[in-house]
Amino acid sequence: MNQLLSPRQVAAAIGVSESSLKRWCDQGLLSTVKTAGGHRRIPVQEALRFVREQNYAVVEPRLLAMPGTDNRKARRIENCAQRMVEELLGNNEQACQAIVFDLFLAGQPVSQIFDEVISLAFRMIGEKWERHEAEVYQERCSCQIALRILHELRSKQTPPDSGLVALGATIEGDQYSLPVMMSEIVLRAAGWDARLLGSSIPFDSMAKAIQQHKPEMFWLSVSFVPDESAFIAGLNRLFEVASKLNTAVVIGGRALTTEIRTRLRYSAFCDTLRHLEEFAKTLRRRTEVGPKKTHKPRKKG
Ligand code: B12
Description:
It contains 12 helices and 8 strands. It has helices spanning 7-14, 18-26, 44-54, 80-89, 93-105, 110-130, 136-155, 178-189, 203-213, 228-244, 258-261, 273-287; strands at 4-5, 33-34, 40-43, 165-171, 193-201, 217-221, 248-252, 268-269.
């Protein structure tokens, strides 16, 4: 459900007067909806967009339906990964939330939070596990915390407005759910109507999804390849289907070594989620689809 806030709540959250906030609504800086009684209400995602874009410091995050922030009011991304590792391994979910949402409220791009904080933290956890400094249960528990944070973050994003559809998945046998979900959030932040199909999906089923939905993009996060030659054949088959429908196939993930990539057909490979964001923005501009324009169904075949 879309949570609606009053101008008074948003004003209190960022420490400005209610009249200033109402003026910004009138100027169209914040879009509002009207209640049955004719009062202005601001969707929480819209309030967050405004705060992030205009660089307002949030004094009362709970008024914006955000998890509690860190008292240290950390706004810088440096050292966040290290703190994240400590809090994840300590099973301190609130502290992990605070790290991520403080950065989000401070306007850091989600792609950067993922690449430089969460992903780096998991790499460090992997290294700790190898050195017997972290238990398997701690790693699993950390994944659960991170997944819940990602779900929460997704619910705080403004709905996509470009009409461009992207579908995504991981291949059969690949259980890594964090990077594929992060890709979805990054694409949505770039204005794409990105929908994650899920993890461990057979190539034939992905092809069906492309044929039925005709997305502008299909992204694949590849963290584990159970059978290299089956993977190469499967992806190349999928690319054939996608290219007939003008669907760009974008791939990324730790299992895509240069050796494997040279044998693959795809439209773009990205090393990081920052790259994906830049690519998605460029592709969006190229298609010249304006905001709020509805998606035109493409001809079949
Ligand atoms: C968590 C984890 C798991 C969890 C995953 C849970 C989940 N729900 O996702 C579970 C328990 C399932 C798991 C299982 C295994 N794991 Co594991 N795992 C990890 C760990 C600790 C973190 C991985 C992670 O999610 N990182 C967070 C993501 C976001 O970061 P990332 O993968 O680096 O992704 C970044 C980029 O690659 C890129 N990217 C990724 N995808 C995409 C997609 C697109 C489109 C784009 C643009 C970019 C992009 O952007 C991301 C952000 O910067 C790593 C340690 C490490 N060093 O990474 C080991 C690690 C990857 N695992 C490893 C192994 C061996 C396994 C198993 C084979 C173990 C086993 N014997 O069963 C299985 C295989 C599972 C399978 N069949 O899929 C090894 C791999 C070694 C190797 N050389 O390949 C590692 C490195 C641990 C180690 N040190 O040995 N694992």
